[in-house]
Amino acid sequence: MTHQxxxxxxxxxxxxxxxxxxxxFWAEQAETFHWRKKWDKVLxxxxxxxxxxxxxxxxxxxxxxxxxxxxxxxxxxxxxxxEPNDPDADNITYTYKELHAExxxxxxxxxxxxxxxxxxxxFYMPMVPELAIGVLxxxxxxxxxxxxxxxxxAQALADRIKDASCKAVICSDYNVRGAKNIPVKKxxxxxxxxxxxxxxLVLVHKNTGGDVDMSDSRAKWWHEEVDGQSTExxxxxxDSEDMLFILYTSGSTGKPKGVxxxxxxxxxxxxxxxxxxxxxxxGDIYWCTADIGWITGHSYIVYGPLLSGATTxxxxxVPTYPDAGRFWQVCxxxxxxxxxxxxxxxxxxxxxxxxxxxxxxxxxxKVMGSVGEPINEEAWEWYYEKIGKxxxxxxxxxxxxxxxxxxxxxxxxxxxxKPAHAGYPLPGIQPxxxxxxxxxxxxxDVEGLLCVKYPWPSILRTTYGDHERCRQTYFSAFKDLYFxxxxxxxxxxxxxxxxxxxxxxxxxxxxxxxxxEVENAINEHELVVESAVVGYPxxxxxxxxxxxxxxAHPVDDEEAFRKELINVVKEEIGPIxxxxxxxxxxxxxxxxxxxxxxxxxxxxxxxxxSNLGDTSTLLNPGVVDEIKDNxxxx
Length: 634
Ligand code: PRX
Hints:
Layout: H1 8-20, H2 22-30, E1 41-46, E2 51-56, E3 59-60, H3 62-66, H4 71-74, E4 78-83, E5 92-95, H5 96-112, E6 120-124, H6 129-141, E7 144-147, H7 154-163, E8 168-172, E9 174-177, E10 180-183, H8 184-192, E11 201-205, E12 219-221, H9 222-226, E13 238-239, E14 243-249, E15 257-262, H10 263-277, E16 285-288, H11 295-307, E17 311-315, H12 326-334, E18 338-341, H13 343-352, H14 355-358, E19 367-371, H15 377-387, E20 394-397, E21 431-434, E22 446-452, E23 462-463, H16 467-475, E24 482-490, E25 496-501, E26 505-508, E27 511-514, H17 515-522, E28 528-538, E29 542-551, H18 558-572, E30 581-584, H19 598-605, H20 622-629
Parallel strand pairs: 4-17, 6-7, 6-8, 7-14, 8-11, 11-12, 16-17, 16-18, 18-19, 19-20, 29-30
Antiparallel strand pairs: 1-2, 3-13, 4-5, 9-10, 14-15, 15-23, 21-22, 22-24, 24-25, 26-27, 28-29
Bound molecules: adenosine-5'-monophosphate-propyl ester.
């Protein structure tokens, strides 16, 4: 089993070793897994192409490490503990033995339907155990999973299917979340009309049993294909650097890109970080409230916990159904030991009042995690006092889809804590801060652009189908460094505080979005001539979406127009991207070279118009006063 750090001194020693001799350090961690064939070389890398290979020529299958390896020692222990949306419904559990059997059955069903090693399989499913099972079944046979969050629109789903030329899409009939019953298969049907010819199989899991159209010749029922399959499926032998999955994420330009993670390094790093950050002990109940549609769900609901032989909770519902006490009711009922959620959820629940917390016994909680966006001090204090009762430490974990695993964050109770600070880097992670001119900022009490100097096992390998984009986006800003896109401060104690994105990426309720992506969606409306989207501070969401719009002619009914715009965004991307504020303007502040001055738009959107800086160089300085006067946030 992966090594676990048990004190601050041990952390310091491990960190030092990981910097002095990274290869020996990671080889030691990798040794704790089952490999079909050991690697010839630990690491081969350069950041200029980039080309990063971990555990070179090692052979393995990650599911043998998630499942088979545990059968003897903990076959009857619960692996997945499913909490349905309906609070009165019974929990569904899969022991490691049962999960192994189910994964094998689904893997066999996929093979019987022509899915082979290297094929891409798209998942568009709610948070039900079959999603985790399906993902593992892909990994079992060497197919590459590409999970698309089930809140994305048909258009967004189609874009992702096309980009990866997926051979199959696996979905549910419906998705029940809170009081809503969302027709998932219908969205897939729409996507299938959008040039998604690569799809040969649509496998439909019956979740609610509601009506669905199965007339497409490619559509098959999950249960009909899976029931009766053998509970044994020989795992495909994979190279360390074979692709494990693609996960799409937004950047500052263009369409979302498919971040590629590979088998060996991702396995080693997610297990190592899981065990250490959450200080998971045998028999603990661990709950991460994320959705498997995001990286947090991949690494810390599915892979990290199962690699560690943990019991991982999967929750189908939402934090506010049937009321704002749901998280805490579940924590009490399941006796959750490690709880991992996002600041936006904490802020939303905090706003509902303490009465939803006070009636539950939360004494089982030993470690509480935060992820996805900076956690403000007020939310941090509330989480620490009300949920953790000032006993359970908070691990504020900074990382990204591209990093595969947690990069900066506490290790359970073994690290010092400071509200709103992620803290120290994990062993193996060498962060640095740069100024805009490419100089490294040495010492403490400095603020700059957050980069990483040295590869870690779960760093992204490429962006699917476009390696140059990967190089450009992450490895070209600073020579021989991975650039994160975040700004950060290293305080007087050397602890990191993440300030936020320095590019045109916004973080809305922990969901990452490119402003250009939202603008492209808005521009689909026939009346829109041009638009500019910025983030603005939002009490619950962290950031809200503020859109400035130029229309072709004056709009009679502004309210109706706003609704139409929101609908266009919902159709193009999904409800998570809908603008909170829409301001119609006659022009956008532009430099003489035609670049939109977003700095001004951000300031106005944040309600701070006191000092907009020098606007005299603008092509159209007059427009600034108009924008200011009609601002929707004052
Ligand atoms: O800006 C950082 C923010 O989320 C971005 C990564 O988003 P995504 O790839 O969707 O992954 C989210 C889950 C790992 C980062 O560039 N972010 C993530 N965690 C934190 C954070 N900002 C501050 N504090 C965090 N703990």
